[in-house]
Structure formats: structure tokens, C-alpha cells
Amino acid sequence: MSSHALHIIHTEASCGWGGQELRILSECEGMMARGHRITLVCAPQSRILPEAQKRGMRAVALPIGRKNLRGLFALRGWLKGEEADVINTHSSTDAWLVALALKSLGRTTPTLRTRHISAPIPHNRATRWLYTRATTHIVTTGEKLRDTLIRDNRYPAQRITSVPTGIDTTRFCPGDVRAARAALGLPEEALIIGIVATLRSWKGHRYLLEAFAQLAQPTATLLVVGDGPQREALEAQAAELKIADRVHFAGNQADVVPWLQAMDIFVLPSYANEGVPQALLQALLCGLPAITTDVGSITEAAIDQRTALLVPAQNAATLAAKLKTLIEQPLLRQTLGHAARAHVAEHFSREGMICRMETLFHAAAKGGRG
């Protein structure tokens, strides 16, 4: 294989669907466009499998959804017949399975580990081996995540690089609000507050519902785009708060652009497990004023009072107050929206992400461990 074109294997054990999976697919597409060969290994029941196939990627289904011998032997057997220049792992389970499979095969295939979220890493000898010996280089999706690994876990700084998730700045852009609402069947004159996120507990939907219920704004509509394990509980909460008639659960949407363009205000009240969320970046690129929290590396995109408004996590009262501020100050909404788009376009472009990851892949393939 030439020094330029690489065979890159990505592994993903998660069966979920969200920003992590979308980043993997976007990155793979970018590398394919640059002439690299991509293989994605994932669990048979995962959502990313058919999505990768739809994009023309080589996707291999193996039972890697759990840390067990079945998954280890399946991955080991498959890797035995594969030649790769570099492997990129994305979740804890597949990172362990890859590391153990390679060790049992006596292989030293360079391995990158992408850390997409801010969940703490255990402090034990085995995990330290995984991150500092079995992994060639660690990639984080934000500088704060990188700083945490250096400060709290004492991992070598020279072997950790922050590569923020890049977003297509031409696709995600401000649009015609009236046209978007008409196309989606949303009320034309309503003030629409929205969130785009998988319905998981740590995304903070429950606090958004509580805050929305405190607003004395009868024409306001809350638009919830996404689906997930918390849907039933959130629908019950909306009914209990007596706001069900003003909350629209839109479910998963293949194209979120028109939904974002239909909103007046975007909210993401996450309280855990974040890097720099793609949905937030997408909303900011669409010129939306946003309210969010200082979790993970969110503040690299959402700078308080400049590109967004920040609130304490799990605090519905403060969130309601900030929503009231934005509702009452259309000029502030406009100012934040313009600044947000400019900042994200400059620092979170998809092309920048692809370039930086390609450089890391080439460095790892050449045998560099830093």
C-alpha cells in the first residue's frame, strides 16, 4: 500500500445513535473521498451498520457489542485475515476487544482511540495499559477532555490531540423560517424553542420541560427532535405539567436542517457525557441563539454572552429565566446567532477535522507514538 493511501479500520461497539456515530460516518466519508480505504466493524444490531452501508462503506458486522469471549474471538479471527495500516476505536468495549485481540495475535497495528465524551476513565492498572501502551494515540473531541486526561489520569500530553467534530458549514446555515415551518406543518407565528438530541437522561430534556412550563408565553411551542429511551417518561412529564398541547415530539429526523431553521431558540441542557455536541454546533451554524451548559467541551463553541447563554446544569429555574431573557430580547437573539455562526464556521469546519485526522492517521501508520 502506498505511503499516502491507507487502510483504516474503525470499530464501534455502541448500538446507539447520536453525535458519536454521525462523526464516525462523516470522518469515514471524508477519508474515502481522499482515496483511503475504510472498513467499519460494528455490532449486527447497531444503527450505524445500515447507515454505513447506505453511504457505500465497507461495513462488517461482528458480535462486539459486549466485552466477552465471543466478541473477542470473533474480532480476533476477523483481524487475522485483515491487513490494516491503522485502527481507530471509539467506545470502551471495542477499544478493549481490539487491544486484546491484537495482543493475542502478536500484532502491533497502530491504534487510535477517539474519546467522544467526558465520562471519567477508571484509575487502575489495566485501563492505564489500554490507554498508554495498547493505544498509539488518543484523540479527544475537545480541549477540556484532553486537559482532563492529562491532569486527572496523568496520560502523556504529547500522545493526546484534540480534534473537534467538524460540521458542514454550507449545509447547516440560516434559512427561511416561514418556509421551513410551512414544509414541516409547524405554526407559522409561534415562538419555537427547540432541542435536537437523543432522548437520553443526561441530555437534560426533563429540565427543559420544567423550564418551558414556567414560561408565561401561551404562543410558545417546544419542539423536541430525536428519539430514545426517555421518550415515554418525557411525554408523561409534559402531560403532568399540562403543556402536552404545546410540546411537539418530532422523533428522529434524517435531515434536521429544516427543523433547526424553523426554530427561534435552541436549548441543550446536558449535564454529563459530552464532548462538543454536534447538534449544538449545527444549531449555532444555523444562526440560532442557544442556551446550554458548561459540560464536557461545550464552552469551546458556546461562549457565555458571546455565542450562547450558559446555565448551571440541572437547574430548570435558571433555564426558564434565560429563556425569558431571549424571548423578550430579539436583538440579543440576533446578535448571539450571528456571532455563533461565525465562531463555529471558523473553528469547527468538517474540512479541518478531516485534515487533522488524516495527519494523525499517517503519523500513526509511520510508527510514531506521539
Overview features:
7-stranded parallel β-sheet; 370 residues; 16% strand; single chain; 13 strands
Write a structural description.
- The mean pLDDT is 95.
- The two termini are 23 Å apart.
- The protein is an alpha/beta fold and 370 residues long.
- It has helices at residues 19-33, 48-54, 69-80, 92-105, 125-132, 143-151, 177-184, 205-213, 231-240, 257-261, 278-285, 316-328, 330-347, 350-365, and strands at 7-12, 37-42, 58-61, 86-89, 111-115, 137-140, 160-162, 191-196, 220-225, 247-251, 265-268, 290-292, 309-310.
- Helix 8 packs across helix 12 (316-328).
- It has 14 helices and 13 strands.
- The strands form two sheets. It has a seven-stranded parallel β-sheet, with helices on both faces.
- Strand 6 (137-140), helix 6 and strand 7 form a beta-alpha-beta unit.
Summarize the model shown.
With 370 residues, this protein is an alpha/beta fold.
Write the layout of secondary structure elements.
Layout: E1 7-12, H1 19-33, E2 37-42, H2 48-54, E3 58-61, H3 69-80, E4 86-89, H4 92-105, E5 111-115, H5 125-132, E6 137-140, H6 143-151, E7 160-162, H7 177-184, E8 191-196, H8 205-213, E9 220-225, H9 231-240, E10 247-251, H10 257-261, E11 265-268, H11 278-285, E12 290-292, E13 309-310, H12 316-328, H13 330-347, H14 350-365
Parallel strand pairs: 1-2, 1-4, 2-3, 4-5, 5-6, 6-7, 8-9, 8-11, 9-10, 11-12, 12-13
